[in-house]
């Protein structure tokens, strides 16, 4: 059993004993919360449970704390001190701390992971960029954070489906076809202009060139409508294939790719029919309007235009209806911050359909600003357009890009320092963490050269030899990992795991600099090898959540 869970159960048992002894009254007491004190002299864990219980017990927090501590006569507890207005600081015996190491070594790559719960279904939809061109840096942040959130929720025991919504219907696809058509005609010496809302990227020229290289001028004498339809499908297939490839290269994988085309027209018509039956749609000026103001939106929204063409909202209503109908307990969307105003109308539509809008969580992704040599970088040197995710990966690598995207909370703007991301120094957080992992493999190599076999049976380790402050701090930090997974999952905050890994790496480097591992004292050497193996496991499991590699060499 983990140290924290053991202590929590011990406090709950002490409360039960105090109630039975009459020193505390029966009542609906709060949940026990434990924190690691900021200063080591305040113990291994601390709780404000006595202060939170004052209203229930109708006693001063210090009296409640005394009643609890008086019942806590456990063999694994060194002592419990009452401090301040009623805080309780706990000091655990080393034996129970060593149990954490045994648990990590036994669990291996399963350490930190909760049992899988089939019934706790979550769908996470993220990126969902239009398949009209390459992914840019903003998409990269959503891709890294979304995939890390999927990994995190799975580690916390949830049954997660990762989904990409392909916006492959509507005006953007017509504009894609028209843009390729214009570039194709240019190659044949024909005057043509890209439409006002068309696409001007270099990738459009490449698509047109590929069509010309394969088929020449065979489309020139074709009716324009027929040519546009062919170009639309050719460009769509090419862009979607490239998009999937770029995401895979960025260590982003989906369980399901949902095509918007499948919603037109039947699913949209069915969703509107349900809204109409429920009296949530009305006609005005020839258009159909959703009564979204009934559910907190600032104004009603058009779902079907006066020309009979569905709006983007209509397709999103049908799509989210499909999500709800698939039976997920929780739906999580990661959208760009520019979609802030869209959240209320989609939730309003779900409420109007009779679904629980509280099941839908929308996380808003803030902007990314790139900096090189302290100056903002906005345009690609290669194309003069916005910097693509591919270009970023080429410059700093997948691991650095992912870590830097994840290390800040999603709702804060991110300043991405390209120089720092490429540096091989302790200032670069991802390098600092990965170096800790690689350094442990270097220690293994030294141990083998010193005659130690790494095919070890850790059951005969003399754990009591681990007495140094650096050793104990490492163990206590690793003990917090399973709870950190749960807390980060609850808060939808994979950046917490990025911070955890960095802090653990810092403690390891401090330990390495103060404690000799390879030495003549074989009992101590083996105990410290067990310790660093637990560190390696915990760092690797942390990086796995982030989708970052754990190299053996640097």
From TrEMBL:
Top-rank taxon, per record: Bacteria
Localization in the cell: Cytoplasm
The enzyme's E.C. designation: 6.1.1.19
Ribonucleoprotein in keyword set: no
Domain Arginyl tRNA synthetase N-terminal residues, every copy: 5-92
'HIGH' region (motif): residue ranges: 129-139
One annotated GO biological process: arginyl-tRNA aminoacylation
Subunit structure: Monomer.
Family: Belongs to the class-I aminoacyl-tRNA synthetase family.
Full protein name: Arginine--tRNA ligase
Species annotation: Megasphaera cerevisiae DSM 20462
Gene: argS
């Amino acid at each position: 059993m983990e140290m924290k869970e053991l202590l929590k159960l011990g406090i709950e048992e002490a409360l039960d004993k105090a109630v039975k002894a009459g020193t505390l009254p029966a009542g609906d007491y709060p949940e026990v919360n434990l924190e690691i004190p900021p200063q080591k002299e305040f113990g291994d864990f601390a709780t404000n449970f006595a202060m939170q219980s004052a209203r229930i017990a109708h006693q001063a927090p210090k009296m409640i704390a005394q009643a609890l501590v008086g019942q806590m006569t456990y063999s694994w507890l060194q002592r419990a001190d009452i401090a301040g207005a009623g805080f309780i600081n706990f000091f655990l015996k080393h034996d129970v701390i060593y149990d954490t190491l045994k648990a990590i070594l036994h669990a291996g790559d399963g350490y930190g992971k909760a049992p899988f719960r089939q019934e706790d279904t979550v769908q996470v939809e993220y990126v969902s960029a239009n398949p009209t061109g390459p992914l840019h840096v903003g998409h990269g942040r959503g891709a890294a954070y979304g995939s890390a959130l999927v990994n995190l929720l799975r580690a916390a025991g949830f049954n997660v489906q990762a989904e990409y919504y392909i916006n492959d219907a509507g005006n953007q696809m017509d504009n894609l076809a028209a843009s390729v058509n214009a570039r194709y005609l240019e190659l044949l010496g024909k005057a043509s202009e890209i439409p006002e809302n068309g696409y001007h990227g270099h990738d459009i020229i490449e698509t047109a060139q590929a069509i010309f290289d394969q088929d020449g001028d065979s489309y020139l004498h074709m009716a324009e409508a027929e040519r546009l339809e062919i170009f639309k499908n050719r460009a769509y297939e090419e862009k979607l294939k490239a998009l999937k490839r770029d995401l895979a290269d960025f260590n982003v994988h989906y369980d399901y790719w949902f095509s918007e085309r499948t919603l037109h027209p039947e699913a949209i018509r069915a969703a509107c029919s349900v809204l109409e039956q429920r009296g949530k749609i009305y006609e005005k000026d020839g258009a159909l309007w959703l009564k979204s103001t009934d559910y907190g939106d600032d104004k009603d929204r058009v779902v079907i235009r006066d020309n009979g063409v569905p709006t983007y909202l209509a397709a999103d209503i049908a799509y989210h209806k499909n999500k709800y109908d698939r039976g997920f307990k929780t739906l999580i969307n990661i959208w760009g911050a520019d979609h802030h105003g869209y959240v209320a109308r989609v939730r309003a539509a779900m409420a109007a359909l009779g679904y629980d809008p509280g099941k839908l969580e929308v996380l808003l992704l803030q902007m990314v600003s790139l900096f090189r040599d302290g100056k903002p970088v906005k345009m690609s040197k290669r194309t003069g357009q916005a910097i693509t995710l591919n270009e970023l990966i080429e410059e700093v690598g997948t691991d650095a890009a992912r870590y830097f995207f994840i290390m800040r909370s999603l709702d804060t703007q991110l300043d991405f320092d390209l120089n720092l991301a490429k540096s091989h120094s302790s200032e670069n957080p991802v390098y600092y963490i990965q170096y800790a992992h690689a350094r442990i493999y270097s220690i293994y190599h030294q141990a083998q050269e010193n005659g130690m076999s790494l095919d070890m049976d850790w059951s005969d380790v003399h754990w009591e030899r681990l007495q140094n402050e650096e050793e104990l701090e490492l163990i206590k930090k690793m003990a917090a990992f399973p709870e950190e997974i749960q807390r980060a999952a609850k808060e939808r905050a994979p950046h917490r795991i990025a911070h955890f890994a960095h802090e653990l790496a810092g403690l390891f480097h401090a330990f390495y600099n103060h404690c000799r591992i390879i030495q003549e004292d074989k009992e101590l050497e083996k105990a410290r090898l067990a310790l660093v193996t637990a560190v390696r496991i915990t760092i690797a499991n942390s990086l796995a959540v982030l989708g970052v590699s754990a190299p053996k060499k640097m």
